[in-house]
Specification:
The complex is a heterodimer of chains A (361) and B (138). With 361 residues, chain A is of the alpha+beta class. Helix content of chain A is 19%, strand content 34%. A six-stranded mixed β-sheet of chain A has the order 10-11-12-9-3-13. A six-stranded antiparallel beta barrel of chain A has the order 14-17-16-15-18-19. A five-stranded antiparallel β-sheet of chain A has the order 5-6-7-4-8. In chain A, helix 2 crosses helix 7. By secondary structure, chain B is of the alpha+beta class. Chain B has a six-stranded antiparallel β-sheet with strand order 1-2-3-9-8-5. In chain B, strands 4-6-7 form a three-stranded antiparallel β-sheet. In chain B, a hairpin with a 3-residue loop joins strand 6 and strand 7. Classes of the chains: A alpha+beta (361), B alpha+beta (138). At the A-B interface, strand 1, strand 2, helix 2 and helix 7 of A face strand 4 and strand 6 of B.
């Protein structure tokens, strides 16, 4: 049975094309991926990301329990601050990449990927014990992301809370269009914007209010297609495509969210050992120097022999060049290194480039 | 894919023949011009890349002769007839959006000199193709 967000009917009525994503019937596009992509880069776009899950840890021991399951250093957070990081297996393989929101010293909300709701809940429940409860609140919450240079101004028009005080990766409780929300200055597009967590049964009203408020600025509804091309231009990793239980955050280029010296956490030993040993492969950003578009699963070729794999790829709608992420042998990971991508039996020349491919001014 | 109400007003011209893979074929003098249908472009979304054969190459009915890619997906193009490619719509390489804008006109892909004129007669007519599209939508 396919899963649906509280906004499913809204999407269908608005003429969205619906596809399956990780078991969810989700809008992949409304007007078209390129148009939606451009709206987010230049104006604002609204995404239904209610398929994302929310697991909440509460209690006097919640911070310690979560810290033992999380690669980043939660001690750096204050109330109202969020942090990106990974949950790892003892092998160092990635269970999921998540954002942790510190609502209070004893109240931590973990936003998890749609396909990993149950897996992550079970994983985090390992931290349950005296002084820690773990609740899967995924079905209680909807999540709307308004992203783009005009996003903050549009949300501001619908709330009395001063959003200018909310820095990137911070959040506040706010009533937006009369709907009680967590308004978080986070996103997955590389643009400024807010992710609004609200009660599931209030999502449709909030969705309509945001689109109405943004009409003058050209805000439009967007689907998962544009979300994917936007995140890829920003070189944000996608769980299940760019990383999984078999890849480590070090290989995936996420060493910056792995704090090996923060104290013990699940996976730390394996990651320390991997670091000492040296990485065999690394996830890199690349462009093609010949014609073609890289796609998930295409082989990375060195001297005609498979040496790695493309994990994400598209023709960048903003830059108009082919861009992708690939696991390559460590010796091919430096900027400027060259390899080939096998596309329908052809070896197409590729070059490692700096990421993000695109970043806002 | 599920619910999508837009197909009702789709255009499948009467002077074309169709494959079940959503290519169209138009007889033009002794040639057959080939493209993809409006339904195909709608399913694909924005076309951003087209890979076509060179003039002089042979294509074989039912086999892939090229590729069309949207932001998200890759699709093979299947030849509606066998024969030799005598012309290629090379402007599409730099302006692939032509496929979306005018699938039955400027968005044409190749012209083939058919080796067996009967190939064309075996393709679907408008009514049969429209029925196929409707079936795929359900």
């Amino acid at each position: 049975m396919a899963l649906r967000t509280p906004l499913y009917d809204t999407h269908v009525e608005a003429g969205a094309r619906i596809v399956d994503f990780a078991g969810w019937e989700m809008p992949v596009q409304y007007a078209g991926i390129l148009e939606e992509h451009e709206a987010v880069r230049t104006r604002a776009g609204l995404f239904d990301v209610s398929h994302m899950g929310e697991v909440v840890l509460r209690g006097p021991r919640a911070a310690d329990a979560l810290g033992r399951l999380f690669t980043n250093d939660l001690r750096r957070l204050v109330d109202g601050q969020a942090q990106y990081g990974c949950l790892c297996r003892p092998t160092g393989g990635i269970v999921d990449d998540v954002i942790v929101y510190r609502r209070a010293a004893e109240d931590w909300l973990v936003c998890v990927n749609a396909g990993n709701r149950q897996k992550d809940f079970e994983w985090l429940r390992a931290g349950e014990g005296p002084g820690v409860t773990v609740a899967n609140e995924s079905d209680d919450w909807a999540q709307l992301a308004l992203q783009g240079p005009k996003a903050a101004a549009i949300v501001q028009r619908l709330t009395r809370t001063d959003l200018s005080k909310v820095q990137t990766f911070h959040f506040v409780p706010a009533e937006v269009a009369g709907v009680p929300c967590i308004a978080a200055r986070t996103g997955y597009t590389g643009e400024d914007g807010f992710e609004l967590f609200c009660p599931a049964d209030r999502a449709a009203g909030l969705w309509g209010a945001l689109l109405d408020a943004g009409k003058g600025e050209g805000a439009i509804p967007c689907g998962l297609g544009a979300r994917d091309s936007l995140r890829l231009e920003s070189a944000y990793r996608l769980y299940g495509s760019d990383m999984d239980d078999e890849t480590t955050p070090l290989e995936a280029g996420l060493a910056w969210v792995v704090k090996l010296d923060k104290g013990d956490f699940v996976g730390r030993e394996a990651l320390l050992a991997q670091k000492a040993r040296g990485l065999g492969r690394r996830l890199v950003g690349f462009t093609l120097t010949d014609r073609g578009i890289p796609r998930h699963g295409y082989p990375v070729l060195r001297d005609g022999v498979t040496a790695g794999v493309v994990t994400s790829g598209t023709l960048s709608p903003t830059l108009k060049i082919p861009v992708g992420l690939a696991y390559v042998p460590a010796e091919l990971a430096a900027e400027g290194a060259t390899f080939a991508v096998g596309i329908r039996g052809r070896a197409v020349a590729a070059r490692v480039v700096k990421t993000p491919f695109y970043s806002r001014k | 894919m599920t619910a999508n109400p837009v197909e009702a007003d789709m255009n499948f011209p009467e002077d074309l023949r169709y494959t079940k893979d959503h290519e169209w074929a138009r007889r033009k003098d002794d040639r057959v011009v080939v493209g993809i249908t409006e339904f195909a472009t709608d399913q694909l979304g924005d076309v951003v890349y087209v890979e076509l054969p060179a003039v002089g190459e042979e294509v074989k009915k039912g086999e892939a002769f090229g590729v069309v890619e949207s932001t998200k997906a890759v699709s093979d193009l299947y030849a509606p007839v066998s024969g030799k490619v005598v012309e290629v719509n090379s402007p599409l390489v730099d302006a692939p959006e032509g496929v979306n804008e005018d699938p039955y006109g400027d968005g044409w892909m190749i012209a083939v000199e058919p080796s067996d004129p009967k190939d064309l007669d075996e393709l679907l007519d408008t009514r049969a193709y429209a029925a196929l599209v409707q079936e795929q939508e359900e």
